[in-house]
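TODO from last week: model Arginyl-tRNA--protein transferase.
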Amino acid sequence: MAGKTMSDASSSNFGGAERGESVVYDCRRRKSSCGYCKSGSHGSITHGLWAPDNLNVDDYQDLLDRGWRRSGCYLYKPEMERTCCPSYTIRLKASNFVPSKDQLRVSRRFQRFLDGELEHDKPVEITEVSSASEGSSFALNGKSHSVEKNSLSLKNNEKEEDHFMLHLSDEINDAVSLYTKSSDLPRNIQFPRASVKRVSHAKKKVLVQGSKDLVYSSNVAFQLSASIRRAQVGEMKDGNLSSSESNTAENGFIPKIVAEKLVSYLSQVNEVSGFSIKACNGHINFYSDKGEAFLPKSSDKATISQETAKAGSKDSSRDKNPKCSLQKRRKFEIRLKRSSFDPVEYALYKSYQLLVHNDSPDRISEASYRNFLVDTPLNFVPSTGDCTVPPCGFGSFHQQYLIDGKLVAVGVVDILPRCLSSKYLFWDPDYAFLSLGKYSALQEIEWVKQNQAHCATLQYYYLGYYIHNCGKMKYKATYCPSELLCPLRYTWVPFHAAKPLLDQKSYVVLSDFSLQQNGESSALDQVPNDMELEHDTDYLEEPDNDNMDEDGEMAEDYSDESDEDLGSESRSLAPEIDDGDVTNILIGIGNSRMRYNDIKEAIFPSRSYVENQLVRYKRVVGKELSERIVYTLQ
């Protein structure tokens, strides 16, 4: 019987017995201090499991879909109706992902850096002596230097203008994206990237009256028109487009018309403060409303004084152009390796924790790093070549990001039968200007898309937990269209439908929305008012890093709770376990695997205690998993 039950337990929907069995120890309910609301009390309440050696990837996938996560070999699930900060599992179907304007900018900025078109924003060690007036000097290494100040000011002005022109280029690129999506264009077009340049005084002299306020211009309409014509020629050669159709289409894609269209879309993308935008004979021109000396910052569109801008313009011919000193194209690599300790990764992790999260050195150790991000209970599953496993296999991995051979970021991920689950990311603080957290998420989504061809079931990107009132979590909802896991029925609810509910209350049975839409009653309608748990705490903490994942080290100040503390509201919110039947739970005693029904008489003295534990265990993992995962009696 033992052999039969073990075989049954090891099988799953995807891999079968060859993927190994799952063995867990029940850590029961745990309380700890909350790292999000910083309440100071033990308000974070979770149920924990310990899986030191074996966890089947299929079982862990199913645990994820019931709200579980892992930190090293420790598995935990928030008790949603009790914990101070209810944490909803959030995921995204990779094939449906639509990048936002901000996410597109992150990708373009990263590419410009690789192409050598963007400088490395290294911090400048400058301390301002006084900010009371614009004429205050700066202290460099403890000394005041007016000459260095003036030179620095000019260089900063040039750099600021360079960044602003890149900002304008981004705005045009967004307009190009809108234009191409709304137009009937040929296929296989190589879309150009917009470039904005300052208009020289010599060119202004040959232009029409009123051009004195013309500051910047872009000729991307000519490039886009040429790309469309080349694609049309290709379609004519392939017989997909007739000559008459080509002539008709070409008339609508001449540079003048394309520029006018782009200008109209620019007004939809964003307002460029202080400038008016006009199309002129195929060019997109930016006219300053306050004369050519007006220059907003690319970050906040604030103005710079006329005197500073004129000084920068006057001396730009003498000073070295920043673009001339830009680095050559950089080599970028992404390496996916199985989870293991790497001293270079550990050094990067220490730097990240110290400088980004302000951790004290005594809190960072090799042992805690291993426990958190290296150790994994997941059984590795190699590729089978039959479109059921991706080439890298299933298991825990570290995705390394290298620029010119230097490790700049590491993403810790689990690759499972239905998803890539993002666990944590740490990066080099010197590269913070590249928004590596956002960029890595885009890369991980793209990885899922690419590997669907090798594993048909691999479709989703899991971003971990989402806490609606926590600023650190806001960025996760920007990856659209995302879904949140209902904490009661374990169905997925679109974020746009869940958001209005979460705006009102932090713990919500999200699937109630769809039930109400269908006119059905909710299970919570039967719960007395005095049993509803309110979570009205305001989370005042601002995120110290909007790219940080939620999974941190598990606090060590856990305290067990007695079985008597299992509240009646928890039982009322678990409809799938009405009878408390635990007879089919798979029990591990030594090397033996048996159903609880076969051994309960043998442990009669402690039977009541054991059965109470099994009821709680079955409630948090579900009936199917409780009969598949080996529950080890201690």
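Done. The two ends are 22 Å apart (CA to CA).
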